[in-house]
Amino acid sequence: HEYDVILSQCQIEPVNVFTPPTDPNGSFWIQGLEPWESDGVLVRIFDRWGNKVYENEQYTNATGWRGTGSAEGVYFYTILLPNGEEYTGTVNLFRQN
How is domain 13-93 classified at the CATH fold level? Predict the structure, then answer.
């Protein structure tokens, strides 16, 4: 028997809430990002006034946005994959006391 194996990239799914500095929910985590990480993923985070608070052209989940210096609230993100796919959305940052 002969079989063809077709591999496809899964869509990414960013978290919609994170709670720094706790683990494992202490950073902006993007599920499904791993296949893209070595090729250069651009992530930008903006506050509700449109000010850029974070940018990384080589984003990885291991070194991702931790919300350092940012207040609690809703943030907007853009994620640009190496293949040109762009994802946008919101993430809520809540601080753990």
Answer: Immunoglobulin-like (2.60.40)
